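Service request form, structural biology core

Requester: graduate student, group of Dr. S.
Request type: structure prediction, single chain
Budget code: on file
Notes: please return the result as structure tokens.

Sequence provided:
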Amino acid sequence: MKKKIVAPCGIDCFNCEIFEDNVTDELQTRLSAMTQVPKEMITCKGCIDGNICLLLKIQGKNCKTSDCAREKGVDYCFECDMFPCQYLMPLADGADKFPHNMKLYNLCLMKEIGVEAWTEKAGDIRKTYYTKKLEIGEGGS
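Core staff response, request fulfilled:
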């Protein structure tokens, strides 16, 4: 089985729509039209081995979180003695479209049960994040 790519910040790259194993022709066409990036380049290898999120790459930006993890010599942010830090701060902007607010929960769970066990739960976590209606006091339960 192919290794499930997980970003240092706790994002489950392997579940992302633009990850190389998941990207569809329709999504490539739509994003290509929006970004003027050739359709065949709309695919992401995940945030590992020097790769960064395709959305940042298209903009010519670096990922400060990934850069920080590399500088500190950790694979995942939860391994850092500064965890959690400002790079993991949840933001309301884009929360309905992007999984960035799942990072802290993911990292804490990864630290508790291990990365491999977390990868088995990541799809359900993402589904809950995007589909469960907010009920004050219930969280994602």
